[in-house]
Design a protein that fits this description.
The complex is a heterodimer of chains A (about 280) and B (about 260).
Chain A (H helix, E strand, L loop, with lengths): L6 E12 L2 E13 L3 E5 L6 H8 L8 E3 L2 E4 L2 E2 L5 H7 L4 E4 L3 H4 L6 H12 L4 H14 L5 H6 L7 H13 L5 E5 L7 H18 L2 E6 L2 H7 L2 E6 L2 E7 L9 H8 L24
Parallel strand pairs in A: 3-9, 3-10, 7-8, 8-9
Antiparallel strand pairs in A: 1-2, 1-4, 1-5, 5-6, 10-11
Chain B lengths: L4 E10 L6 E11 L4 E5 L6 H8 L6 E7 L2 E3 L7 H6 E4 L13 H11 L5 H11 L16 H13 L5 E5 L7 H17 L3 E6 L2 H7 L2 E6 L2 E7 H5 L6 H10 L10
Parallel strand pairs in B: 3-8, 3-9, 6-7, 7-8
Antiparallel strand pairs in B: 1-2, 1-4, 4-5, 9-10
Helix pairs in contact in B: 4-5, 5-6
Classes of the chains: A alpha/beta (about 280), B alpha/beta (about 260).
Chain lengths: ~280, ~260
């Protein structure tokens, strides 16, 4: 597989029915990425989370996903039925959700949740499963993996829970990880640690990462390229190291409205939205 | 001038007996009239626990607190008049408004409870002031965006003309552009009304933007007092404050070079 073709999406559109016909919440989304870190940034309702779900075939009923091309490696995602998707999710592509309190199963031990992927996709005996799970818990920076392996989610802090979630995604060595606001439910200090960890792991293991967030400066620090979404469309693609080269008024507006020492005690610039942005 | 809020040796607890958790330890601070005071810290630092005590929502505490000249007795619910002078805006506008009440009812309830006669006029004025206008008056919360809901919550708080406004992470559930609008609204309210604010947040950039002074909390204790200028110019001495600053570098608007 060549590096530029880990994920190749063209013309991805997600629509939902409404009283006045179908409403497209994602329109003509395109992304070609290799084993790199891509950020998707946008405000509530910009379609960033539903894009992530569409990439993993998780758009809920009655939503409809169409695309001209959607490939993960050499696998055509458009041709998959639900059994085919189950063979992809967890094995080749995984998702890390916002809040470990909700995304981990509260009545299942952490160890069982981590090894679940192995039971589904690989034939290993229980001792080997356990060994792999303990190793991955260690890799995500958990000092007492034995305890965490046997623990229930409520016995862990938010940061530990999110580490366990990352461990569960990594155990099957996926090619692509989509992290949807992975740190916004965490404490500021823990947020930093979890992001660094995720960054290290995807870099050293050569995993493609799509990091979805509303926090543009944070995404800029961890990603290579940033897609800015507004009302279902990509309005701008940015080099993460050159946010200052942003051209689109929406991107500029998003950066300008953050509190900065220069504006201390003054009114912040507010974002005035131009209907033309939706067409761009 | 006398301080509006004086807190001395306050301990806050959750639960009773062996289950008792010591959430805030020996907190002392005083906040001047019309000042905006920030409480910063990570999860579990006790900042929200202290704020809830100030709001009269959590009677399980000891020490001494004076709010707007009145001593607050520990261990009991404050009288109704207390809440006229001390109002709170909560973090999540999706949870703090009754989904089955219209904006009109949300705003009129407090006014009726506190015996305001001119509720009609006040509701109209306060909706204008928070930038919503009369067309929002008979809508339900689910018809409003997050920013509009937070405006309703702020309107509810200021309609009673409180002397003290307590703000618990009022912008952390909102998008950056909406956060800017709400911060601007709070600045305007502060200019127009003689109100003293306590602003709880984990976001140092927001705190530095809107507050005059800041207390940093960790594990239930106030570890450092700072002015906003000291925070911006990074003249901090406690290691925990340094950690917080380092974590917010790049994550938000505080410029590491400043």
């Amino acid at each position: 597989m060549t590096d530029a073709s880990l994920l190749d999406i063209e013309g991805l559109t997600v629509s939902f029915p409404s009283d006045s016909g179908r409403v497209s919440v994602v329109r003509d989304f395109a992304l070609r990425m290799g084993r790199e870190k891509i950020g998707i940034v946008g405000e509530s309702g910009s379609g960033k989370s539903i894009t992530a779900r569409a990439i993993l075939g998780l758009v809920p009923h009655p939503g409809q996903t169409t695309a001209r091309r959607m490939q993960l490696g050499n696998r055509n995602l458009l041709a998959l039925d639900s059994a085919g998707w189950r063979g992809i999710r967890g094995k080749y592509a995984g998702m890390i959700m916002q809040d470990p309190k909700f995304s981990l199963n509260p009545v299942m031990r952490i160890g069982d949740q981590i090894t679940e992927t192995l039971r589904l996709h690989e034939k290993l005996d229980r001792a080997e499963q356990r060994r792999r799970a303990i190793a991955i818990l260690q890799a995500v920076g958990i000092d007492d993996p034995e305890r965490v392996y046997a623990a229930y989610p409520h016995e862990l802090s938010g940061g530990m829970g999110q580490r366990a979630m990352i461990a569960a995604m990594l155990i099957s060595s996926p090619e692509l990880i989509i992290a949807d606001e992975p740190t916004s439910a965490l404490d500021v200090l823990v947020r930093e640690q979890v992001l660094k960890l995720l960054d290290d792991l995807v870099t050293t293991r050569g995993i493609g990462l799509i990091l979805i967030s509303h926090d543009l400066p944070m995404v800029a620090r961890f990603c290579d390229r940033i897609l800015v979404m507004y009302r279902g469309r990509i309005v701008e693609t940015l080099d993460a190291h050159h946010l200052d080269r942003a051209n689109h008024p929406y991107t500029k507006g998003l950066m300008a409205c953050l509190p900065q020492p220069a504006y201390r005690g003054q009114m912040l610039p507010s974002l005035s939205r131009d209907p033309a942005w939706e067409q761009a | 001038m006398n301080a509006t809020i004086v807190i001395q040796g306050v301990d806050v607890f959750h639960g009773q007996g062996a289950q008792r958790f010591h959430a805030v330890k020996q907190a002392s601070l005083s906040i001047a009239p019309r000042e905006t005071f920030g409480l910063v810290g990570g999860s579990g630092s006790g900042k929200s626990s202290l704020l809830r005590v100030l709001a009269g929502l959590s009677p399980n505490w000891s020490g001494s607190i004076t709010m707007a000249g009145e001593a607050m007795p520990p261990g009991q619910r404050p009288p109704r008049a207390f809440h006229r002078h001390v109002q709170m805006v909560f973090q999540d506008p999706y949870a703090s408004l009754n989904p089955r009440h219209t904006v009109d009812r949300i705003l009129s309830e407090g006014l009726a409870l506190h015996g305001f006669r001119d509720a009609e006029q006040r509701i109209r004025d306060v909706l204008d002031q928070v930038g919503l206008g009369p067309r929002f008056r008979f809508r339900y919360p689910h018809e409003l965006s997050g920013g509009q809901r937070q405006r309703v919550a702020i309107a509810r708080a200021i309609s009673l003309e409180p002397q003290i406004l307590l703000l618990d992470e009022p912008t952390s559930a909102l998008d950056a552009s909406v956060q800017a609008e709400i911060l601007n609204l709070l600045m305007t309210i502060r200019q127009q009304r003689p109100v003293t604010c306590v602003f709880v947040s984990h976001d140092l950039a927001v705190i530095a933007h809107i507050c005059d002074r800041v207390a940093v909390m960790q594990h239930g204790s106030i570890v450092e007092h700072l002015t906003a200028d000291e925070l911006i110019s990074r003249q901090v001495s406690h290691p925990y404050t340094r950690q917080l600053l380092a974590a917010s570098e790049g994550l938000s608007g505080i410029d590491p070079a400043a």
